[in-house]
Amino acid sequence: MVAKDRESDSYIPFFTALSKSPAAGNAEEANNALVSAIGESSLACIPGWTGQFCENPICSSKGTVTPPNQSIFGQLVDMVSLPKCAGSFQFPYDSLSDYAYINVQSDGGGPVVVLTDSNGTIVGSVEAIGDQTSYHVFYRKLLPGTYSVSVKLTLGQANYCAVDVNVYSNVSIRTGFVSSAQSDVPLDLQNGISGLRSYFVAHAFNLPSPGGLSSVLIAEDGSTAYRTTLGKRYDCAYDSFAGWFTCKAGSRYIAKVDAIDYNDYPLRRSVPFLCLQGTTTQVPPVITQCSNGGTLLYANTPDAYCYCPVLFTGHSCEKALCMNGASPNSLGDACICPEGFTGTNCQGG
Prior knowledge:
Blueprint: H1 14-19, H2 24-38, E1 49-50, E2 56-57, E3 75-83, E4 88-93, E5 97-106, E6 109-116, E7 127-130, E8 134-140, E9 145-155, E10 160-169, E11 172-178, E12 192-193, E13 198-205, E14 212-220, E15 223-229, E16 231-232, E17 240-245, E18 252-260, E19 266-276, E20 295-297, E21 305-307, E22 312-313, E23 319-320, E24 327-328, E25 335-336
Protein name: EGF-like domain-containing protein
Domain EGF-like: 313-347
Keywords: Disulfide bond, EGF-like domain
C-alpha cells in the first residue's frame, strides 16, 4: 500500500522522486531494486493515481488544450547560442517534417550555416541569404535522422551566434505548468510562476501512434536547468508530465521536448517561456533533513527535497511502503506484517 503524505499534492510517485535523481544510473538501480522487492505484489493507489507503481496521475477534471500557431518559419525544433560562433550542436529531423529553416543572428562576422548529416557529409540548401550579422537558409527533402549545425564566419569575428532550427510540420507541442499532478489547467499558458514548485505538462498534436513524447530538457538562460523523462497522465488534455520544477523570476527558459515519431525517428519541438513573478503563496517548509537514509538534495535552498531510498516515500522519506499485503501502522513509518513476513516494510519472508 502506498502511503499518503499530509497533503494530496505532496504525494510523490516513484516516477517523480526518481526523475530528479542526480544520476540516471542511481535512478535505474533504485527502480530495479524496487521491482525486485515488490515481486508479484501490487500497490493499492490513493485516489488520483494509477499504474503498476502508482506513478501515473488521473486528472480530477479534464481540461482543454489548443495547438500553438505555426510561425512563418515553422515549428521551433531547437535554439542554441554559440559563444564566439564556435562549436556545434545536433538536432533530430523527423519523418513528418517537410523542410527545415535555420536562422543565425550575430553581432558581426558574416555568419554562414554549415549543416552535416550523421555521416559528416555537408548538406546542400535550396535557398540562402545573409549579411554581416545574419544568415537564413532553407533545406528541402532532408532524410530523417540526426544533423549537426555549425557556423562559419566569413567576415572577421563575432562574440556570439544565436541559432534557431525550425521545421515545417503539422506536429506541434503545447506545454505548461500545473500546481498539482491531477490539475489540467496550466498556471499561465506555457509560462512558469517564480518560486512556485509545479509539474511540467505537455501534449502533442498530430503525432500518430505509436509515436509519443519521451523526455524534456529545460534550459535556463542557455544552460541546462532540468532534464527528465516524461510520464503519462490519464483523462487529461495535457497527457504527459514530469516532476517538480521551480523557475526564477527574470530568467528566460526554453523547454526542449523530445519524442519518437510513428516511423521510429527522433522528433523534437521547443517552447520558449518566461518565469513570471507570482503572488505570495503558502509554500511547504524547507526540508532540512531526511529520514530512513534519504539524501537531502539542494540543501539550504527553496528547492531542497529528499531523494528517498527504495521502499520509503513522503516529504522527508518518513513514510514506509508496505509489501506483501501489509498495512501501515498509525504513524505510517512502519508496516504491520501478515504472518510469515518481517521487516520495516514486510519485505522479508
